[in-house]
């Protein structure tokens, strides 16, 4: 069996990726998030395929079909709850995965990092498209508001919005197109993930110290397969607990009402994982400026490798940079909270201050702090 998996071409690839892969011995549970995201993606695809069998892409029937899935299809309620809450679990893992990459400077593997940012963008698009499909009040108005942002693009904005809608408002063609795209994008994510893993295995995993781990590596199996299995069971248990006992914990109450184009909800807001970006969007008074800031909030991650100025790879031995990292984390939580509040004072001012801090931390503060740490390190080394 050992000879078969090491020499038979299809099994040989799996063997080099999951069994005999040399892995640093000192990586922590934070490195389990990648495999956890793979598990969550598989669960989302499987539950999504089940829901696709019973969903109706018609504005008059979409809301009723979702209700019928939960009420009349055997275990449809479980598939629906797992799929809806699985998206939130997916984003929790993604944000933790990105945070780990920033803290331990995994972004210095530039190709792997850039593909990871592309995966984040694809996931956000997929989640937005999926949020529209239940065709509740917040789904309809969320689609209207977010797609309308493109009208800020000079010259072609209005034509682009009408082309996406398939008409002059969010209607049946819009729902059909969004459903088709939502069905296809997870498979695109799966393919891009494979590319992400190929680049990762080309360079090898980073480790908490940021030093070369070549002298101290072990085989991935059985050491790290057991660690991954532990986190997989934990995450699956948490997801099932939420799906079974708190299925509507993160659902907007407005989305339990069918879409009504004639009644605007008092406070339109996206799902919780988009709230930080939504706050940045509405913090800029100019419409085009808000759209640019929205895309910059995510695409700024592409600049992180070029903004790295520290001589030390990770933040593990840089307490000042660690402080800035946790300030940035708190700032993102403030942006998320502000996005869930009505557009009024002092929420507007808080959002604008947090938005300014968000971009300053990435572009200015973190590189400057790292440069000062370099100087202090050099002074300490020369004096000793």
TrEMBL record:
Residues annotated as domain Cytochrome b/b6 N-terminal region profile: 1-209
Subcellular compartments: Mitochondrion inner membrane
Recorded topology in the membrane: Multi-pass membrane protein
Alphabetized InterPro entries for the sequence: Cyt_b/b6_C, Cyt_b/b6_C_sf, Cyt_b/b6_N, Cytb/b6-like_sf, Cytochrome_b, Cytochrome_b_C_euk/bac, Cytochrome_b_N_euk/bac, Di-haem_cyt_TM
GO biological process: mitochondrial electron transport, ubiquinol to cytochrome c
UniProt function note: Component of the ubiquinol-cytochrome c reductase complex (complex III or cytochrome b-c1 complex) that is part of the mitochondrial respiratory chain. The b-c1 complex mediates electron transfer from ubiquinol to cytochrome c. Contributes to the generation of a proton gradient across the mitochondrial membrane that is then used for ATP synthesis.
Family per similarity comment: Belongs to the cytochrome b family.
Assembly information from the UniProt record: The cytochrome bc1 complex contains 3 respiratory subunits (MT-CYB, CYC1 and UQCRFS1), 2 core proteins (UQCRC1 and UQCRC2) and probably 6 low-molecular weight proteins.
Name recorded for this polypeptide: Cytochrome b
